[in-house]
Description:
Radius of gyration: 14 Å
Distance between the termini: 11 Å
Structural class: mainly alpha
Number of domains: 1
Number of strands: 0
Order of helices and strands: HH
Shape: elongated
Amino acid sequence: MATKIKYVALAIILLGALTLILSHFCGWNNINALNVSAYVAMVVGLVAYIIAGKKALEE
């Protein structure tokens, strides 16, 4: 189960990063809600990845 959570967390991190890259190249830099949601997705994905990694070590 922890490995599935790690893969989902990596996907969330990549989705946030791709959103930021896309917003930069499309000129959507002034849309704060989009940028903040991408940053939040990256942080949530990173925290989930760390927690899943710790749980995998415990098992």
